[in-house]
Structure formats: structure tokens, C-alpha cells
Predict the structure.
Amino acid sequence: MARLTTTASRSPRSASRFARVSAGALAAVSVAAAGCSSSAATGDHLAGGASVPPIRALAARHAPAGWHDASLLGGRAVLAFPPTMHLVAGDRGSVSAAQFSASGAYLMYLNATPKQSSETLEDWPGFRIEHLKEENAATARLIAESRGVRFLGGTGTCVIDAYVTKVKSNHYTELACFVRGQTTSSVIIAAAPTASWASASAVLMRAVAAYQVQ
């Protein structure tokens, strides 16, 4: 299952296909509130004082006009992403999009991956944290979780967590959801450096809200 490390190989063929727009304009996208059951409180914070938007702010919505999309699972799941991001290479069978700084560092990252292990709606919060620790994270902590999250075509369990990578001790925060549709189950990950999560989270949560499954 995909996880964010330090750098990613960018695809020139993909990068040339997408136009650039103002990140500030995208950051102004609002996320509608929904009545999901959530353990997140509006007052949750990351180290350094950055606030964490509650997962209950997720509401299934189609992507804004001008956004791009990429399919996985034979078209049975669709990842939407803003024009500031472009497709990048990822794990086999997955779809990933990212935005980079001028130096090549991650600014925002999205990934959709088919179910690959024993994860379920019920055990997803613990499963995600343990998976991070097994694969790439020196430390990982759960910040918030929510069950019964509505998606376009399905239902999910979502977590917000923060972790530090084993290599170079990079700090990332992510919104990670296990989503079950009528015929398939998959995972969508939306991540950004913890220091910039407050500014990136609105766009990332909007992308997660637009995730479509069957």
C-alpha cells in the first residue's frame, strides 16, 4: 500500500498534460459539513499548533470543474485531483498524483490503491497506523477517526494521522480512508508535510470527498 517518503519520480509525459493554476485559489475551496460519526474535535491540533479539520467535514461531492481524474480497478474507482497536481509513478496497480516545490519536495500527494491485505472498515484505524510503522514510519500517531463516511458510490472509515519517516525524519500528516463500494474496496490517501497541512488540507479533503467507487 502506498506511503509518502521523501521524493517521487515525476512523469514528463504526464506533467506536460496538465495546466498550472494558483494554489491560493484552490486553497480557498470550502468543504461542506456532513453528519458522520467522528472522534475528531474541532480543537484537534498537530505539533506546532496547526489545527486539524475534523473528518466529519467530509461530504461526498463531485470534483470541481477543471479538475482531472484517473481510474483504477478497471474504471471501478476514480481519483480526482486539481490542476496543480499531476500523475506520478506509484506502486503497481495504484494511481498517484502530486504537487512539488521548485526543489522537488512534496507539497501535496494523493494515492488510490485497491485493497491488498486484510484491512476492513472496522479495523482500519489500527491497521493504518501499524502499516505505517511496518513500512516507512519511525513513529506514527492517530489524531482522529470516523466511521460511516459517505463516498460517491460507497462507505468508508477514515483517519487523520501524523508520522515521521525512518529516512531523513520527514514529518507528514495524512487523511487515509478505506472505502467499500458495491463490488470493490480500495484505499485513498491524501498527504502533505505536517508544517503545511493547514494550508493544504482543504484541497486534499476536497479530493477525498470526490473519490468515486462502484
About this structure: The chain has one domain: 39-213. Residues 197-209 form the longest helix (13 residues). The first strand starts at residue 37 and ends at 38.
